[in-house]
Design a protein that fits this description.
With 384 residues, the chain is α/β, with parallel strands linked by helices. The chain is built from twelve helices and eleven strands. It has a nine-stranded mixed sheet, with helices on both faces. Strands 7-8 form a two-stranded antiparallel ribbon. A hairpin with a 5-residue loop joins strand 2 and strand 3. Helix 1 runs antiparallel to helix 2, helix 4 (67-82) crosses helix 5 and helix 5 crosses helix 6. The longest helix has 18 residues, at 265-282.
Length: 384
């Protein structure tokens, strides 16, 4: 007997005069369960499908972007492409629309418009026959190095970040993997370097939040969403998807950590900042036409800088935006997120998909080649 049949049988037996205690005992259910479905039956106004589950999604959803606004977004993107070395990502488009006196849509909506028109693609860098999705051009990659130890002064980690457009890096040692400490490092980088369209990282627990409250997300994700930056989590056990910051980690380890000894944590912090500043001012990349990260960074702009307006010690509201997980679907047709799994369409087997969690719509959108293939209900404890 399935769940639907149990609900119908419980009400039919009650209407026939059977005792409630005997009904719930025989069905292995609680009295609260019985009275919930009795109330549903009484308020169904004679509907024959009263025993079916009802959607928990919000009753109202944001209206679809207008055609005129979509055209303005595309016009702004085209204008930026014609400007020498200008950024063309969602935040840059938002800035340009404001400069024109137009109130822009949210940055995640701009990102969807860009993707829908195939304007987010860049030259492929992989030889793999399995297509890997490209979501955002202006992305900061982040990784956590450690734990490492200072002799006589204990353990430390290092928050390493890199802007993949300019190759500008950020390095900051921290004592613990506390999310607030990591978020403070992100805030410092964005205050001095400007906001990206996306923050890409691996599935480190300190980045995404909590296993105990899997859908609430932590301060790193909430902080990014509050600033209109899209959190992107790469596939599990595929660190090469963060290749730029991983390559920098190797340089940081080989040319700094292994060749210096530190008497204490403060000396390590000073040295790390000196290494960061030297890298950004002196390291020349062939992909940047032999320019340094600082030189390349100055060619882009204008930037939107973080103004330290958010108190990271207080809970940051989770209200809107999108969180992205890139996953490879294997033969079992399962989408594996950090704490739960979902069955997906057979057509997605043996391919990478983008799982977009839409906070305001309480849904999980599965995308392949920038098209939504499947939608799954995904309720979240939002702070409206």
């Amino acid at each position: 007997m399935n769940e639907f049949e149990k609900r119908k049988q419980a009400i039919n037996r009650h209407l026939a005069g059977e005792n409630v205690s005997k009904i719930v005992q025989s069905l292995g259910k609680s009295r609260q369960w019985f009275y919930n479905w009795l109330d549903r039956y009484r308020t169904s106004n004679g509907q024959v499908d009263w025993y079916l589950d009802q959607s928990k999604a919000p009753k109202t959803k944001p209206s679809k972007i207008s055609a005129s606004m979509e055209a303005k977004v595309l016009e702004a993107r085209k204008y930026l492409e014609q400007q020498r070395m200008a950024q063309t990502g969602a935040i840059a488009i938002s800035y340009e629309l404001r400069r024109q006196g137009i109130e822009p849509p949210p940055v995640w909506t701009i990102n969807r418009i860009i993707a829908r028109h195939g304007l987010n693609k860049i030259e492929p860098r992989r030889k793999s026959k399995v297509a890997y999705p490209e979501l955002f051009i202006h992305t900061h990659q982040m990784d956590l190095v450690g734990p490492r130890w200072i002799k006589g002064d204990g353990r430390f980690y290092s928050v390493n970040m890199m802007d993949i457009c300019s190759r500008s890096c950020y390095v900051e040692p921290i004592r613990t993997k506390a999310s607030v400490e990591i978020a403070q490092c992100i805030a410092d980088f964005w205050a001095s370097h400007g906001l990206p369209d996306a923050l890409q990282m691996d599935n480190e627990l300190a980045f995404r939040g909590s296993n105990r409250y899997p859908r609430s997300f932590g301060v790193v994700v909430r902080f990014a969403l509050a600033l209109g930056v899209a959190p992107v989590f790469i596939p599990v056990k595929e660190p090469w998807r963060n290749q730029f910051v991983e390559q920098f980690n190797h340089t940081y380890d080989k040319r700094f950590l292994r060749v210096h000894s530190f008497k204490d944590f403060d000396q390590l912090k000073r040295g790390s900042r000196e290494f960061r500043d030297f890298h950004n001012a002196s390291h020349r990349y062939s992909v940047l036409n032999q320019k340094t990260p600082n030189q390349k960074h100055r060619e882009y702009g204008p930037y939107t800088y973080y103004d330290h307006s958010i108190d990271l010690e207080q809970k940051i509201p989770l209200e809107e935006g999108s969180i992205y997980f890139i996953r490879f679907i294997r033969s079992d047709c399962k989408l594996h997120l950090p704490t739960e799994s979902f069955t997906v369409h057979n057509s997605l087997k043996y391919s990478y998909v983008v799982a977009e969690i839409s906070v305001e719509n309480h849904c999980l959108l599965l995308q392949q080649n920038n098209e939504v293939v499947q939608t799954i209900e995904y309720t979240m404890p939002v702070d409206w």
